[in-house]
Specification:
This protein has about 160 residues and is an alpha+beta fold. It contains 3 helices and 6 strands.
Amino acid sequence: MAQDNEGRAERRRANRTALHLTATIRNGTRSRVQARVIDISTHGCRIECPSIVTDDSWIGLSIAGLETQYCRVAWHCEEFVGLEFGAPLSEAVFERLLQDHKQLPETAINDLRNIASRTNWLARQAGNADIAILGDLSRKCAVDAVVGGLRLKQPTKGPAANK
């Protein structure tokens, strides 16, 4: 089993990749609510949404280009929610999704920085149960923002780079 940055056993079955996708969720019979996918793997994703959800409840997650995914709420903390897909995405579908959103736009990088700052602040205010979740989210978003920023600043490869 993989380990996280602090040497603890990593619970995720697959690494997550930072994305910036708009989505909608439907919680039972309630109307659709806008959400934002922060990162995703074949087995789940992390979203930001204003809707209140409860752990272990099931929701429908709609992302453009994918069939509606039925997801179990693995955790929630403030406006952030960790979702586990009822059926994992196939590698082909996951790779196509990543290919369509290969590089984070500058606005997404700024959003990740803002999430990192906000969750860091929330972690300092939170009770013991939420500190680890918020700290992990803060750290992950900060790293993703740095990596995305570095990718934006890399020169283009190929003949166009020499002009």
